[in-house]
Amino acid sequence: MTLPFEIFVGLRYTRAKRRNHFISFISLISMLGIALGVAALIVVLSVMNGFGNELRDRILGVVSHVTVTGERGALDDWSGLAGRIGGGPLVTAAAPYVQGHGMLSHGKVTSGVLVRGIDPAREPGVSDVGRKLTTGSLEDLRPGEFGIILGRELAWKLGVEPGSTITLITPQGQVTPAGLLPRLKRFTVVGLFEVGMYEYDSGLALLHIDDAALLYQMPGQVSGLRLKLADIYAAPAFGLALVDRLGPEYRVRDWTREHANFFRALKIEKRVMLIILLLIVAVAAFNMVSSLVMLVTDKQADIAILRTLGLSPRGVMGIFMVQGSIIGVIGTLSGVAGGILLALNVEASVHFLESLLNFTFLAKDVYYITDLPSDIRVDDVATITVAALLMGLVATLYPAWRAARIQPAEALRYE
Questions:
Q1: Does 213 lie in the same domain as 103?
Q2: 342, 347, 375: which is closest to 361 by C-alpha?
Q3: Which of 36, 45, 188, 285 has the fewest CB atoms within 10 Å, measured from its CB?
Q4: pTM of this prediction?
Q5: Can you tell me whether residue 11 is helix, strand or coil?
């Protein structure tokens, strides 16, 4: 026998057929409970990761990875600034923009919008909005023709379509004998886009950068420079390094700071969900405690005989810790395997349930995201596995301690 005595006996107890089948049933239920809890944790966190990635990609389809602006919100020489920043392996593209607020009016309907003037030739390098156009193209924005591209929800709200004429009202006023009046300009709708984020689909309008500079009285200037990086997660560090390099007269923001509250909320929600679902594993661990306590009661005579043969209380404790740990390990590994398998095929599983129940979980006319994306991360699986194994180990402590306290004379008195 090459195994230590405690492990050998613990394995024998696990494999042996028990006289009390109720104890075996509870042990099986405990194992299944741990497996189900671990599998549910992996699937839920993977789906949450997938949703987070989908939302992040949609946001970054409109928002640049890094934005550089002047101290007063304007840049005089954006091409020189782009040269100072440089390309290199990290910065893949750069594009200027002019940004301002305004109000769109069509008939009796008005709506506040964020107006962004773009360079149609450079914009595809820093955003995906060109690929999200449902009508028209970025090339339809020509300087001097005052064309405008609207989000689909915004166009529906205003009741316009490609070819319609709308009025853009800007807060920069002009002085007249009648007083200060807002600036108004008529634009022609040349395209519609749909990025799948209501914030942008209902509140963003795109102009040609020259038309926007003329409208917002910024001749020869732009509001800032938008950068796209090869690694989006390098944006915070790159932004800090860029601040040191450019100096205090420039302002640098990255995508994590622009939507910090949103991504922080997703992170907190994921942590809370992890804690809540770990309770499922904890319940299964409590079941394992009860089954081991009953097993200890059932094996009192065996424990007493082992004690009389010289086995120490620590050895008795080790036997039952091994037996309980085996239940936890088998349940955890089964749950990890099942969770990963289900997470890899979650969309197919959902489609099967939809066809079986004749019910659509994510209706296209209600939700922007109609599929269940899944992203299995090694750190999540490792965290869940370690937590489940630790719970299984802790669950064995009290029954094993109780077994170690059994006195041989008392246990064998009525045998």
A1: yes
A2: 347
A3: 188
A4: 0.75
A5: helix
